[in-house]
Design brief:
The chain is α+β, with helices and mostly antiparallel strands. It has 2 domains: about 5-240, Aminohydrolase, N-terminal nucleophile (Ntn) domain (Glutamine Phosphoribosylpyrophosphate, subunit 1, domain 1, 4-Layer Sandwich), CATH 3.60.20; about 265-450, 3-Layer(aba) Sandwich (Rossmann fold), CATH 3.40.50.2020. About 30% of the residues lie in helices and about 25% in strands. It has 17 helices and 25 strands. The strands form 7 sheets. Strands 4-3-5-2-11-10-12 form a 7-stranded antiparallel sheet. Strands 6-7-8-9-13-14 form a 6-stranded antiparallel sheet, covered by helices on one side. It has a 4-stranded parallel sheet with strand order 18-21-22-24, sandwiched between helices. Strand 21, helix 13 (about 365-375) and strand 22 (about 380-385) form a beta-alpha-beta unit. Helix 9 packs across helix 10 (about 295-305). It starts with 6 loop residues before the first strand and ends in a 13-residue tail after the last helix.
Length: about 450
C-alpha cells in the first residue's frame, strides 16, 4: 500500500427495490466498484430474497472478487455492499464485510464505515454476557449488540444500540426485508440517499448513486436513522442536536472529485483550496503542477489565482493504485518512480510549484522533488492544500503513530530541508475551512488535536 497517505476505512452501499422480482445485486456491485477508492483490501455483498439473506465476501478488489458466476449466485430485491480498508481489526477474511448474523428472530446484515471509540468496552460487556465473536472488527460489535437487543423489536434494538456506541459510523443494514441507514450524531463519516426508478439507494458518496443512474436526493443527517421498505423512506432522529463535524479529509483526499458531501462539491472545494493557498503562500515560478490525482484540482486553482500556467508535469500509472505494496522503506521510495513519472519536456529549466493534498511521512514528496530536479527543474516549491497532519485520527482513518507523522516531529523549515525543496508551505486551518464554505462544522482533529467527542489520551501515541 502507499504508506505516505492517510487511508479511509471503507465504503458502504445499499439498494432497495419495491419490485420483489427485481434483482438489485448488479447495481450494488457497480456501487461498490464506484467506491473502490475508499478501500481495496476486501469487498462483499449481502442480498435478501423472500426473507432469506445470503452473503459473499472475499479479499481483494470488487472487480476481481465478483465474477459473473459469483454475481449470478446472489439475488435479491434488497442488497448491501462494502469495500474495506482496515483500521480497526486486521486485514483478514474474518474482518471482511458485510457481517451477516442469523438468529432465532431473523437475520441482520451490516456494512460499517467508521471506528467506534468504545468498541473494546462494548465487546467486553457482550463477552461477559456470553456473546461470541468471530472477528476482531468493531463492526461485528454493532451486529452483536443489535442481535442481543432484537427481542425488543427492530426499531428499539437499533436505537438502543446506536445510543450505546460511541465514535464514527455510517451504517447500511438489511433486516426485516428492509434497508436501513444510520449516521453518527456528529456526521463524521458521510452517507447519502438516492432515488432509484423502483426504489431507494444509500451510499457513502453521491458518485456511487450517479454511477447506477439513480438520482441523488440528500445527505443523511447526523444522528438520523432511515428505514426503507415498501412503504417508502421513514426517518428518525436518535440523538439530541449535536454539532456537525464532517471529516475534513473527505474533501482533501478521500472522496472522489465528482461527489457532493453535505452540500459541498468536492472538486470545487479542492480548486478553491488551491486559490486560497496561492493567496496565503505565493511564490514566483514558471509552472504549477499537481500530484495526481487529488492534488490536480488544487493546482488548477493555484494557477487560476496566480496566472502561472498549469501543466501536467507528472504522470501517474493507472495500474498502480493505493494498494501498491512496498515491503520496506527503500523499496517504498523507489516505488514512487513506478507510480509517478515526470514529463521532462514540461519541467526542464523551469521553476515548478508542486501542489499535493497532504504530507504524512514525506516519502512521496521527497522522491518527487528528486525526480523533478533530475529531469531539469530549476526549482521545486511545494504547496500543500491541507494543514500539517500532526495528530492521530480515532474515527476511521488509518494514521500512523503520532511520532511517525512527519509534521509532528519537524518544523516546516526542517521538513522543507528534509524534502530538499526550495520552499514549503501548507494551507492554514482557516484557509481550509474557507475552501469548504459548507453548512455546519468539520472534524479537524488530525490537524489541531481537537476532536468532536472525547478520545483516549494521545500523549504516548
Amino acid at each position: 500500500m502507499d504508506d505516505d497517505k492517510l487511508h479511509e476505512e471503507c465504503g458502504v452501499f445499499g439498494v432497495f427495490s419495491c419490485d420483489a422480482q427485481e434483482n438489485v445485486v448488479p447495481l450494488v456491485y457497480y456501487g461498490i466498484f464506484s467506491l473502490q477508492h475508499r478501500g481495496q483490501e476486501s469487498a462483499g455483498i449481502a442480498a435478501v430474497k423472500e426473507g432469506a439473506t445470503v452473503c459473499y465476501k472475499s479479499m481483494g478488489l470488487a472487480g476481481e472478487i465478483f465474477t459473473q458466476e459469483i454475481l449470478a449466485s446472489l439475488s435479491g430485491h434488497a442488497a448491501i455492499g462494502h469495500t474495506r480498508y482496515s483500521t480497526s481489526g486486521s486485514s483478514s477474511i474474518e474482518n471482511a464485510q458485510p457481517f451477516l448474523s442469523h438468529f432465532k428472530l431473523g437475520s441482520i446484515a451490516l456494512a460499517h464505515n467508521g471506528t467506534l471509540t468504545n468498541a473494546d468496552l462494548v465487546r467486553e460487556l457482550l463477552e461477559d454476557s456470553g456473546v461470541g465473536f468471530s472477528s476482531s472488527s468493531d463492526s461485528e460489535v454493532i451486529v452483536r449488540l443489535i442481535t442481543k437487543n432484537y427481542k425488543k423489536g427492530l426499531e428499539r434494538a437499533l436505537t438502543d444500540t446506536i445510543q450505546f456506541i460511541k465514535g464514527s459510523y455510517a451504517l447500511v443494514m438489511l433486516a426485516n426485508n428492509a434497508l436501513l441507514g444510520v449516521r453518527d450524531p456528529n456526521g463524521i463519516r458521510p452517507l447519502c440517499l438516492g432515488r432509484h426508478k423502483s426504489g431507494w439507494v444509500l451510499a457513502s458518496e453521491s458518485c456511487a448513486i450517479d454511477a447506477i443512474g439513480a438520482e441523488f436526493i440528500r445527505d443523511i443527517e447526523p444522528g438520523e436513522l432511515v428505514i426503507i421498505n415498501n412503504d417508502g423512506v421513514c426517518s428518525f432522529s436518535f440523538s439530541e442536536k449535536t454539532t456537525r463535524a464532517t471529516c475534513a479529509f473527505e474533501y482533501v483526499y478521500f472522496a472522489r472529485p465528482d461527489s457532493v458531501i453535505d452540500k459541498v462539491d468536492v472538486h470545487s472545494a479542492r480548486i478553491q483550496a488551491g486559490k486560497i493557498l496561492a493567496q496565503e503562500s505565493p511564490v514566483n515560478a514558471d509552472m504549477v503542477i499537481g500530484v495526481p490525482d487529488s492534488g490536480v484540482p488544487a493546482a488548477i486553482g493555484y494557477s487560476r489565482a496566480t496566472n502561472i500556467p498549469f501543466g501536467l508535469g507528472l504522470v501517474k500509472s493507472k495500474y498502480v493504485g493505493r494498494t501498491f505494496i512496498a515491503p520496506d522503506q527503500q523499496v517504498r521510495e523507489a516505488a514512487v518512480s513506478v507510480k509517478h513519472n515526470v514529463i521532462q519536456s514540461e519541467v526542464k529549466g523551469k521553476r515548478i510549484i508542486l501542489i499535493d493534498d497532504s504530507i504524512v511521512r514525506g516519502t512521496t514528496c521527497r522522491r518527487l522533488v528528486a525526480i523533478l530536479k533530475h529531469s531539469g527543474a530549476r526549482e521545486v516549491h511545494i504547496r500543500v492544500c491541507s494543514p500539517p497532519v500532526r495528530f492521530p485520527c480515532y474515527f476511521g482513518i488509518d494514521t500512523q503513530y503520532r511520532s511517525e507523522l512527519i509534521s509532528n516531529t519537524n518544523s516546516v523549515e526542517e521538513l522543507r530541508s528534509s524534502l530538499e525543496a526550495d520552499s514549503l508551505a501548507f494551507i492554514s486551518v482557516d484557509g481550509l475551512l474557507e475552501s469548504l464554505n459548507g453548512e455546519g462544522g468539520y472534524c479537524l482533529g488530525c490537524f489541531t488535536g481537537e476532536y468532536p467527542l472525547p478520545v483516549a489520551s494521545t500523549e504516548n501515541i
